[in-house]
Design goal:
Elements: E1 9-13, H1 15-18, H2 29-39, H3 45-60, E2 71-75
Antiparallel strand pairs: 1-2
Helix pairs in contact: 2-3
Length: 82
Amino acid sequence: MLPLRSGDRLYLYSDGLTEAASPAGERFGRGRLLTALRAGRDAPLQESLSLLLEAVEQWCGTARLKDDASLLAVEIAPEPSA
C-alpha cells in the first residue's frame, strides 16, 4: 500500500502513451513520460495533463498513434478545515 497525502497525484496511463513513436520509429517511453510529468508538477492538474499530451503529440510529429492512448489523473485534495 502506498499512502497518498494532500497534493499528491496519481497518473494512470495505457501503453499507447509510452509506445507512441516518433517519425523515426523511436518510442516515447517511460523516461520521457516521467520528464513530461515533472515539467507539469507545479501546474494545475488539468494543465499537467495537457502538457503531457502536448509532449506526446510533439514527439509523434506527423506520425500517428498506432495504439489507443488513455490517461487518468487524480489529485488528493486537502482535508476541509473544521
